[in-house]
Design goal:
The chain is mainly α. The longest helix is centred in the last third of the chain and has 20 residues, at 25-44. Helix 1 crosses helix 2. It has one domain (2-44). The protein is built from 2 helices and no strands.
């Protein structure tokens, strides 16, 4: 979702729509901040 240009707020809203649970926007930001560097290593190095 983040890779498709969705904002943290949009991701939070979509997660609620799909799974019926709320994700705090800061939590989504923390997750993407941790995952993006690992994905870059896997696919670009």
């Amino acid at each position: 979702m983040f890779g498709r240009g969705m904002s943290d707020k949009q991701i939070s809203e979509k997660m609620y729509e799909l799974f019926g649970c709320n994700f705090v926007i800061d939590m989504i930001s923390d997750i993407t901040d941790k995952i993006i560097p690992e994905i870059q290593v896997m696919f670009f190095y």
